[in-house]
Recover the amino acids of this structure.
């Protein structure tokens, strides 16, 4: 595997990952911009509008047929909240030319051209997005916003984040807000879009069996040529100081059979390097089947089937996650508090520590075997401006000490306790 | 060891049936870091009535035993839990139960053989006590309650209720809180001894392995067990009719969820033999994409009308004694969508399949099959679950060439019958 990057223009980067491990080539285009209350809904709308039609593929049907012709290229658009940024993502995955039933079709070239067209050359009418598409996509976004409640576990975590980041960018919902939709019109939104693609950070990833032409094709692409140089407008995620005040306890009622208990924890890190220790801390607290949460809340107390924690490294928060019987709330909460306290006291063995490290390192190694994870890893590096190779990453994890974990544990505070119940 | 090569995806399958009856399949992937192993028994939630080899009377057990066993097998006599031991080795271990098989697995980059010791030990050494069985009821109870809140699980299960009268495919894999309360260690041992015989199991490995080496390592770790005779399974008689066309449940969701089901009549039809199963499955995938995929007329129209906003998932599921279509998604007006779907089927039957559309979607499905060979997990799981259906996964890549429009039209008329369709809806 060989990774290289190249600045096509100021603020626009091409990343190539040459690998022959896969049957597929994966191409991704990421547009990264600051997350703000003002633009969050517009960006969400753009992410769904762009897949409705482009210059030469003016309908969704035309795009779909094109992808189907390319041996079922999977085309997808997504929207992410990454730290204080909103990222609009486009993916095309095609099978590699080596595995086509007949030779001579240049799928890689075609897919690069098609994805760039979809991202940077949308279908327009009368100087704006097509009115019909806009109205339909407003409905689409409305339903996605309403759809928040459908996955109760996900909803509970999102609500906990919202409580922790009230009036801050990270507390925003990535699909935006219904009340914004009405005022958005086709021409203004198109103008906003043009400004966005000329000011946001752009990263293009190509992974697979790449021939020498690939860079050329992208550099010479009309849609790339038309983009301006820019000082990209985005937020570099950093370890920020937390000022945890009193624990905020929030209870919400909904029609659920099982209660969802989420604890939002602040990790008050001194510097970026402590993130590797925090990774191990999280693994010990609730990251795997040997963790305190799994062992004590699930296996010993039988309070839950899901009992885990996850580390959100861009914001230095840990979310403890439990599905419990509603009447067991007090008991479960007390037990979770005890796990957090025990971590502060260093109540874990050297063996636990070693196992957690090996678990994390093993999961890092699998990045080599997963095309999309590989892209996300390099994108994370790009965003944080911290270039760490996978080998270096593993070395840093290897160096984590027990005392280091205890230090991190003592920087962990409960910010919010969120309970979704009946 | 038999070697089967597929030139389209450029992969090889090594397969051997060991003396004790266990089937081992190896799909080497050189240069890949991840190693994946999965060991399955042809025993799932469907199998609750059977005759133990050597016995005469029928054994009937409560629903949910296969899944319960899956949970309990990790427990070791020395008080440790194999899931913890494997996790401590830095491997990613798990298990799951379906309606026709139960599987144990792990994925790792290092410590493969250390993990193999533990893995093959725990699957072959059950340890159940009254106490540890009781304890598990609490955890599984929470799992059952978790699924009760999943609208997508409910809409699926209700569709099954609407299609099937007696077939156990309709029951919840976990059982219910009531049925699991009746499970005890005697039942668990009896089911274990019956279904976890090597002759009823298959093991699949994928990763950077030398087939001759890995098979020896596996043999070394097998306990001495005689291959048992085949197990007689008893499935209730299933009428050809559906139970009810419409079924609805109320749950708090933003937008109704729907599943359209089409029950296929399995008995007494001329289309069934082994090769035919694969051919029919391919034809169904093409047909469903033509009917309701992203480029289909139906999808485009419904999107424009605001009736749906995402392509539905299109599945054709089949086993020894059932087969059905499931079309699942979210829609503001699921009933209208259902009517339109039926109309579209009629239109397709009248006009026949368009040759150009067919060729395009055939390419799509070919690409989909090739993509399955990217990841060791996908590969191993696919070979295991296909094996229990009597299929070698490569057959899909081989058979697709021969599928043509005439055949598709034939399958369309055979499967898509209006009196076999149901709709399940979950809404506020």
């Amino acid at each position: 595997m060989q990774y290289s990057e190249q600045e096509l223009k100021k603020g626009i980067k091409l990343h190539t990952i040459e690998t022959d491990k896969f049957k597929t080539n994966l191409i991704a285009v990421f547009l990264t911009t600051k997350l703000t209350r003002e633009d969050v809904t517009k960006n969400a709308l753009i992410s769904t509008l762009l897949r409705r039609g482009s210059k030469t593929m003016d309908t969704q049907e035309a795009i779909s047929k094109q992808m189907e012709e390319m041996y079922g290229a999977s085309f997808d658009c997504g929207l992410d909240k990454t730290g204080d940024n909103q990222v609009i993502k486009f993916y095309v995955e095609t099978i590699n030319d080596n595995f086509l039933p007949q030779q001579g079709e240049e799928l890689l070239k075609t897919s690069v051209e098609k994805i760039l067209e979809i991202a940077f050359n949308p279908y327009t009418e009368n100087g704006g997005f097509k009115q019909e598409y806009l109205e339909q996509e407003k409905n689409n976004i409305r339903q996605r916003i309403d759809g928040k409640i459908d996955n109760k576990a996900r909803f509970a975590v999102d609500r906990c984040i919202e409580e922790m980041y009230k009036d801050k960018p990270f507390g925003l919902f990535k699909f935006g807000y219904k009340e914004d939709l009405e005022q958005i019109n086709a021409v203004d939104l198109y103008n906003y879009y043009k400004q966005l693609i000329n000011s946001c950070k752009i990263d293009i990833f190509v992974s697979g069996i790449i021939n020498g032409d690939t860079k050329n094709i992208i550099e010479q692409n009309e849609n790339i040529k038309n983009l301006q140089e820019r000082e990209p407008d985005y937020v570099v995620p950093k370890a920020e100081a937390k000022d945890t005040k009193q624990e905020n306890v929030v209870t919400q009622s909904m029609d659920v059979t099982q209660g969802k208990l989420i604890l939002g924890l602040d990790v008050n890190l001194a510097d970026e390097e402590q993130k590797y220790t925090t990774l191990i801390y999280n693994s010990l607290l609730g990251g795997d089947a040997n963790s305190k949460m799994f062992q004590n809340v699930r296996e010993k107390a039988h309070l839950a089937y899901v009992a885990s924690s996850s580390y959100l490294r861009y914001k230095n928060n840990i979310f403890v996650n439990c599905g419990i019987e509603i009447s067991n709330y007090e008991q479960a909460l007390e037990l979770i508090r005890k796990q957090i306290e025990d971590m502060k006291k260093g109540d874990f063995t050297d063996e636990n520590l070693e196992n957690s490290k090996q678990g994390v390192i093993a999961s890092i190694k699998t990045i080599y075997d997963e095309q999309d994870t590989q892209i996300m890893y390099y994108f994370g590096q790009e965003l944080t401006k911290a270039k760490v190779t996978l080998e270096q990453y593993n070395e840093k994890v290897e160096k984590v000490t027990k005392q280091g974990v205890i230090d991190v544990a003592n920087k962990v505070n409960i910010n919010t306790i969120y309970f979704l119940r009946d | 060891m038999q070697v089967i090569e597929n030139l389209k995806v450029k992969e090889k399958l090594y397969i051997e049936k060991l003396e004790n009856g266990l089937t081992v399949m190896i799909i080497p992937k050189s240069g890949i870091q991840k190693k994946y192993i999965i060991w399955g028994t042809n025993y799932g939630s469907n199998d609750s009535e059977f005759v133990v080899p050597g016995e005469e009377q029928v054994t009937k057990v409560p629903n949910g035993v296969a899944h319960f066993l899956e949970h309990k097998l990790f427990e070791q006599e020395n008080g440790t839990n194999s899931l913890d031991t494997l996790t401590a080795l830095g491997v990613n271990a798990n298990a799951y139960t379906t309606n026709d098989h139960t599987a144990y697995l792990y994925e790792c980059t290092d410590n493969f053989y250390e993990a193999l010791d533990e893995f093959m030990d725990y699957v072959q050494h059950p340890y159940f006590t009254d106490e540890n069985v009781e304890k598990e009821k609490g955890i599984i109870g929470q799992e059952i309650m978790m699924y009760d809140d999943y609208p997508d699980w409910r809409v699926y299960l209700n569709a099954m209720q609407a299609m099937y009268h007696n077939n156990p495919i309709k029951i919840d894999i976990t059982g219910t809180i009531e049925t699991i309360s009746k499970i005890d260690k005697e039942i668990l041992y009896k089911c274990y001894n019956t279904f976890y015989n090597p002759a009823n199991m298959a093991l699949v490995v994928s990763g950077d392995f030398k087939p001759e080496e890995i098979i020896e390592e596996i043999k070394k770790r097998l306990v001495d067990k005689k291959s048992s005779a085949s197990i007689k399974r008893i499935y209730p008689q299933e009428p050809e009719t559906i139970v009810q066309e419409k079924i609805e449940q109320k749950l708090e969701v933003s937008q109704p969820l729907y599943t359209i089901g089409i029950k296929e009549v399995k008995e007494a039809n001329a289309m069934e033999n082994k090769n035919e199963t694969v051919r029919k499955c391919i034809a169904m995938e093409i047909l469903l994409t033509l009917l309701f995929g992203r480029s289909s007329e139906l999808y485009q129209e419904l999107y424009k009308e605001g009736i749906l906003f995402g392509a539905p998932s299109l599945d054709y599921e089949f086993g020894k004694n059932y087969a059905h279509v499931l079309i699942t998604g979210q829609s503001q007006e699921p009933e209208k969508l259902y009517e339109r779907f039926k109309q579209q089927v009629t239109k397709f039957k009248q006009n026949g399949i368009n040759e150009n559309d067919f060729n395009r979607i055939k390419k799509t499905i070919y690409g989909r099959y090739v993509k399955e060979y990217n990841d060791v997990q996908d590969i191993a799981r696919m070979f295991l679950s296909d094996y229990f259906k009597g299929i070698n996964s490569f057959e899909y890549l081989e058979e697709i060439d021969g599928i043509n429009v005439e055949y598709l039209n034939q399958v369309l008329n055979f499967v898509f019958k209006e009196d076999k369709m149901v709709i399940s809806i979950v809404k506020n």
